[in-house]
Design goal:
Layout lengths: L1 H9 L4 E4 H5 L9 H5 L6 E3 L5 E7 L4 H17 L2 E7 L5 H13 L5 H10 L6 H10 L4 H10 L1 H17 L7 E4 L2 E4 L4 H18 L1
Parallel strand pairs: 3-4
Antiparallel strand pairs: 1-6, 2-4, 3-5, 5-6
Helix pairs in contact: 5-6, 5-7, 5-8
Length: 209
């Protein structure tokens, strides 16, 4: 059911809602800027010191996440001043869960970005064996990743649990979900939408000064 909801949600144009408005109804799940934007265990791509932070909640088997991925990565790279926080949110079943765990485990060999790109580029259905093959083909030490996953299982599971709690508190009906500074977006953003979201975030920051 969750997979179906995720697919339907991605068909809807992205909707922006102020983060602060949702945080008031977050229950016992903390949606503070510190918790969402600066979780020390969450992988960060782009410019770690960027003036705009984007948080992406995604699944490696989500077709809409895969479609958005090249534009998101290119916009972040071209801009040069965007901090991209990756929130693995595996909701498409066991293979997605394994992919998320192995991608996070790859961060222990400074290869999260490489793992993320490789898994997002895969067009076939994921299995555990396929995940290992994809990561290996991308130049990641799969044996080490498995060992790092085992050695850091508690920390990795805690991170994925926090991601899930935050995504649920944000009321994301599925993947992808984006947080761009003060606004959240339900659904995908194309290149134009991403550029506009970043521009709006900077305008909002300037208006507060």
């Amino acid at each position: 059911m969750r997979m179906i909801v995720a697919a339907l949600a991605a068909l809807v144009a992205a909707v922006a809602v102020p983060v602060a408005a949702l945080a008031q109804d977050a229950g016992n799940v903390t949606l503070s800027q510190e918790a969402v934007f600066f979780d020390p265990a969450a992988p960060v791509l782009g410019n770690p010191e960027g003036d705009v932070t984007i948080v992406e909640f995604f699944d490696y088997q989500c077709p809409y996440c895969k479609k958005m991925h090249p534009d998101l990565m290119d916009v972040v790279k071209t801009d040069g001043n965007v901090r991209l926080v990756m929130k693995d949110w595996p909701i498409f079943g066991p293979a997605s869960e394994y992919a998320a765990r192995m991608a996070v485990a790859a961060s222990y060999q400074d290869a999260y970005g490489k793992a993320n790109d490789a898994l997002m580029a895969e067009k076939g259905k994921l299995t555990d064996d396929a995940v290992d093959r994809i990561l290996g083909d991308a130049g990641i030490d799969v044996d080490r990743a498995r060992k790092d996953l085992k050695a850091n299982k508690t920390a990795i599971e805690a991170l994925l649990s926090r991601n899930d709690q935050q995504a649920t508190a944000f009321n994301f009906p599925g993947t992808p979900g984006l947080v761009v500074e003060r606004f959240i977006f339900w659904g995908t953003l194309d290149r134009t939408g991403l550029l506009q979201a970043i521009s709006d975030a900077r305008k909002a920051q300037a208006a507060k000064k």
